[in-house]
Amino acid sequence: RVNFPRPSLPTGHCLVKAVAAMVAVFALAAGVGYWYVDRWNNTPVDLAPDTTRIVVLSPGESFSRFASRLADEGLLRHPALWARLAQIRGLAKQVKAGEYQVAAGDTPEVLLNRLLAGDVVTYQVSLIEGWTAMQAVAELARDNNLAHELDGVTTQTLLGALGLPGGHGEGLFYPDTYRFVRGDSDADILRRAHAMMQTQLQSFWQQRDPGIPYATPYQALIVASLIEKETGQDADRVHISQVFRRRLELGMRLQTDPSVIYGLGQRFDGNLTRPHLREDTPYNTYVHRGLPPTPIALPGEKSIRAAMHPADGDFLYFVARGDGSSQFSRTLDEHLAAVRKYQLR
């Protein structure tokens, strides 16, 4: 019979060399794998230059499902790898739901960090000085990025719809630019604007001139709204405020056209007539002495400040010059001459 030689076992030295070789192979493979993963993780997503895309991570959606959707939309390769990397690092459950922008040049790592930071897409909407509350509601209703909760409200029902103490909502919303995220509502914006107006009004009230004839911040807000509608000229605001203050002190009617127009509501067609000036509405300051019952518009910071700090002086009248500015007069004769010059020419 033939006796085959039995294979010899590696000596200790040979075994060490074999293990070292295997470790080297594994290390090389791991290094190549790490290099590939790192390179992929820091390579921009598939978007054309100078383009962006909006993606949404829904509340309760798993990170792996989100990654798969990005792949389905052609933005991401190897979604399972991205999800696995996030899981290994303990980050998959830390991402925040919301609407995110993906731009050309963004990498999977950049996008993951954006999700972790909650750096969601924001929008903005502006409420303009001089608008009525319902003009603000209408502007918010036109913004398709907002949820709409205020359909059908009126100035009288607006505060109740916002969950605020009831009353007349005119003038109680601070005109400013407000940023929001998708899912916020028109009601959310107005609640913020209401809170801001309360903060600003109280701040200015604490610093008001001691001699102004207003018993409450709300009365000062009414005056601020009249100033807002009377002029867009910053230099004239404090002088109009002085006219209103002096007229109130003397018991004279304010005789301010914007308040009359507000009282006419939808019936006003742009032409203020003598019958309008005689019509008995609560806002007709040619008929009633004192302040109108509520503000007539959203006053901005400059008009609120002017109401709290009227100029020194003894003007009792003013008339528009036709260029946006006003002519101020101390006597009726001076005023009638200014009317002839600037209004009847």
Can you offer a commentary on this structure?
This protein has 345 residues and is mostly helical. 46% of the residues lie in helices and 8% in strands. The chain is built from 13 helices and six strands. It has helices spanning 12-41, 63-72, 79-88, 108-117, 133-141, 158-161, 186-206, 217-230, 234-250, 257-264, 274-278, 301-308, 332-342, and strands at 52-57, 98-103, 123-126, 177-180, 317-320, 326-329. A hairpin with a 5-residue loop joins β5 and β6. The longest helix has 30 residues, at 12-41. The radius of gyration is 35 Å and the shape is elongated.
Can you lay out the helices and strands and say which pair or pack?
Layout: H1 12-41, E1 52-57, H2 63-72, H3 79-88, E2 98-103, H4 108-117, E3 123-126, H5 133-141, H6 158-161, E4 177-180, H7 186-206, H8 217-230, H9 234-250, H10 257-264, H11 274-278, H12 301-308, E5 317-320, E6 326-329, H13 332-342
Antiparallel strand pairs: 1-2, 3-4, 5-6
Helix pairs in contact: 2-3, 7-12, 8-9, 8-12, 9-12
Entry summary:
This protein is mainly alpha-helical.
Low-pLDDT stretches: none
Overall number of strands: 6
Average pLDDT = 90
The number of helical segments is 13
Give the helices and strands as they follow along the chain.
Answer: HEHHEHEHHEHHHHHHEEH
Radius of gyration, whole Å? 35 Å
Distance separating the two termini? 137 Å
Share of β-strand residues: 5-15%
Judged by helices, strands and strand pairing, the structural class is mainly alpha
Which of globular, elongated, flat, extended, rod-shaped describes the shape?
elongated
Strands of the largest sheet, in order across it? 1-2
| Main sheet overview | 2 strands, antiparallel
What is the helix fraction of residues, given as a range?
40-55%
